Amino acid sequence: MSTVPYEIVDVFTDRPFAGNPLAVVFEAEHLAADQMQTLAREFNLAETVFVLPPTADGATYRARIFTTETELPFAGHPSVGAAVTSMRRGLFQAGRVVQECGAGLLPIEVTTAGRATLTGGEPRLGDPVTPGPLLDMLGLTASDFAGGDQAAARFAGCGLDWLFLPVRREALARIRLNAPEAERQGVTDISVFSWADGEAHARVFVPGTAVWEDPATGSAALGLGVWLVAAGWLPPDGTTSYRVHQGVEMKRPSQLDCTVTAKAGTTTSATVAGHVHAIAEGKISVPPFIG
């Protein structure tokens, strides 16, 4: 049986064995989608990314990203992890590269120190959502909600949308997610966060999946910038930096350094940056073609 090479890396952390673990698979151009899905289930991580030759003009490489259940158009820590790991393997030099993925062509700045800055896709903002049922689903109470009329629970994203719910800092450790209730409400992607002095502390949940809490979520960090501008918690014009701390409750502390650019109260772009640490490498058997 043939094999393909892979690496396991930790993303959005200043040290190994923290942040979000990721499988990066190379030489995957001959794999079918169901073979990629099978390998993602075998790694059993939040996401597995497959690095492929580009098909679009201007792209440096193509990335296909799979959870244990499905393919995603975009995700943050696979994009950052794939870019840094590919640079280290000599697929391209450090500097500006362009990743082709389901969300389009995304620019990424890669450094020789193993850090990458990803620019997200087109910002999107949803309508306000009633917070009460979400708090109940998380085992929290109305007094834990830290938003208001403008700072409402709502969806936002830059390539992948998340539902954002602001809470008090002390409430994060008390969250007890009710998965059946999340299914009843149709909640599949939610970021619960506190905010103070330009920094967020977040817990990000994907109810109903094999990996139901994420220790570092680049796409959610990008979407948070869109939410913060809409809520009036970050300036309506110019570029502002903010930081997201995540994974603390999972004992996999992560740090995501972000910027958001806005004009007249509307987000025009956002970036997320972090380091990537190599953990393991090897070869994995190619599963039989299923489809």
Percentage beta strand: 35-45%
Give the helix level as a range of percent: 10-25%
The shape is globular
Number of individual domains:
2
What profile does the largest beta sheet have?
A: 8 strands, mixed, barrel
Q: What's the architecture of the largest domain in CATH terms?
A: Roll
**What is the spatial order of strands in the main beta sheet?**
1-2-3-4-6-7-8-17
Radius of gyration: 18 Å
Structure class: alpha+beta
Strand and helix order: EEHEEEHEEEEHEEHEEEHEEE
Rounded to the nearest angstrom, the distance between the terminal CA atoms is 18 Å
Let me know the average pLDDT. Answer: 96
Uncertain stretches: none
Please report the first level of CATH classification, the CATH class of the largest domain: Alpha Beta
What this model shows, in words?
This protein has 291 residues and is of the alpha+beta class. It has helices spanning 33-43, 76-88, 131-137, 179-185, 218-231; strands at 3-11, 20-25, 48-52, 61-66, 71-72, 95-101, 104-110, 115-119, 124-129, 153-157, 161-166, 190-196, 199-205, 213-214, 238-246, 254-263, 266-285. The protein is globular and about 55 Å long. It folds into two domains: 3-121 and 276-285, Diaminopimelate Epimerase, Chain A, domain 1; 124-271, Diaminopimelate Epimerase, Chain A, domain 1. The model has no long low-confidence stretch (mean pLDDT 96). An eight-stranded mixed beta barrel has the order 1-2-3-4-6-7-8-17.
